[in-house]
Amino acid sequence: MTANIETTLADENRNATIRRMGLVAGAIVIAILVRVAMFGHESFDYIVFFKRWYDFITANGGFGALKHSFSDYNVPYLYLIAALTYPPIPALAGIKTISVIFDLVLAFFTYRIVALRHTNRWVPSAAALVVLFLPTVATNSGLWGQADAIYAAFDVGGIYFVLRKRPWLACVFFGLALAFKLQAIFVFPLLLVLALKKWLPWRALLAVPGVVLLLDIPAWVAGAPLKQLLSIYLQQTGSYPELSLRAPSIYQFLPANSSVALFRPLGVLVTGLVVLGLILAILFHRKQLTATKIVLMATSSAILVPFLLPSMHERYFYLAEALTVVAAFYLPRRLWYVPVLLQAAIIPAYWEVLFPGGQSRGGMVMHGGPPNGQQAPPVVVGTPPPGTGQGRVVGGQDMSSLYAPTTEFRILATLMAIALIAVLWTTVREFRRDHQPA
User: Fold this and answer.
1) DSSP one-letter code for 246
2) First vs last Cα of the chain: how many Å apart?
3) pTM of the model
4) 107 and 131 share a domain?
């Protein structure tokens, strides 16, 4: 009798698992089809940047083209584009497919993190699908063709391995994230806290720059100057002198004619001081870390840093959008509305960038002198030296006027500020509680 009952229960559990896996697989297929339906759209960034990089690599020998300076992205992403030039895959579909693949990786690590808290597998499955169906996540890859899913997937993977107490693997993932995008550093204050709280050993942090340098080696072997490889992110920091590039950040509350020369370095200083203050506050309380606290710290950092830093794009809240979903599934009663606030703050900004009403955006593209008689790479011009306080001039128009604060974007920045305050306050409350270590 008992054996029959156990067999029946086992069959029911197996059938429930099969149903769950079937529904999740069906939802994933729908998410992919939604993105594929958007593949035909050629965004401004694709036309001006990604397609030109693809064409330059194709015209200059595939991977051998990496010895030239033709892109403001770090080389790991260019490796992926170079790989696309060999099989008969259209450039547009190939570039977007790369991003969609990492959408799935991001959803996978979302599932894994939420599964650490919820034993009911429906809950982490729901969290992964929410991330996969976020309008900004689907739009970023399927419509826009951007690569933000890559660094975000590795960052979220790094957080997962932190929670699993696998510090070296966590830092390898953080290094992979940094190798693809500088925006990976938005959660790096968490690494400092974890090292100071002895959650991970200091020597494990060496894996972060180690991975970045290791991924530079193929391009260096191909002939790229080492100085060029090591300075790519330094060059990026001076590419956009505007205080905000459609980001719903604190700079939307400044007057339109605010001095860039004053507020840009001041914003960097204030961001550093605020982050340092929060780190010291965590150390001062001397509370033991838990999985929930780590998730909240990562989420707070992912919102706070791009909200306070100058020269942020609207896409730079991408990691925060994913992490707020994770945080909401960890503490649904307190944070269920935060992912909604972020989507409400970011979607209009995305729309403004993707469909700007016929206005030119970003910068003027022209061809410089071709290296050794080969096809010239695209060069973005019109950007003055950093710190001059001047906006980029394209076709006689000051680009800073296109990014001037408006009432609409002040409303979006207010929504982002509310989300930030909600997460910070929840984090403070969590640290005030006496938890046992996870």
Assistant:
1) B
2) 40
3) 0.88
4) yes
